[in-house]
# Entry
Amino acid sequence: MNIPFLANWRNRHATERGAALATALADDPEGVAELFAECEMLRSQARSAGLELDGSPASLEALDQLMPRWRRDPEAVPWLGNDAGFYLGTVIVRTITGARWQVWPNGQPVIRLGSGRELNVVESGVSWAVTGSPELSQAYAEASEG
# Structure
């Protein structure tokens, strides 16, 4: 169903949310990065499998090896994928020189590498949660190449 005023309203509000998040990131980059790093659902899933997420690239490899039991709950998958993307971004920002969080005008948080390349880590995380591909460790390896 095509309702033009509704599409305009959604776009305007997405832009407003994006501007608010961008402002928060500019004002307190460490605080926003810590918020992104929480990833409670992912941490809980990992903990229940005996894995403690320590922010290292090795933890991404360990996540890739988990049995994807969450796929049985279709309501949990997008939330877990979001967390996986934020965790991937957190590891990248903490371990790759020059990487930082950035916000697109639509409000989507992404990683900007020192080279200027932007990575939509949340999209990668959701894809990982749904299909297992790309592996989080593979996405990290590609980011670390520049």
Remarks:
- DSSP finds seven helices and three strands in the chain.
- The chain has a mean pLDDT of 88.
- The longest helix spans residues 4-27.
- The CA atoms of residues 122 and 130 lie 12 Å apart.
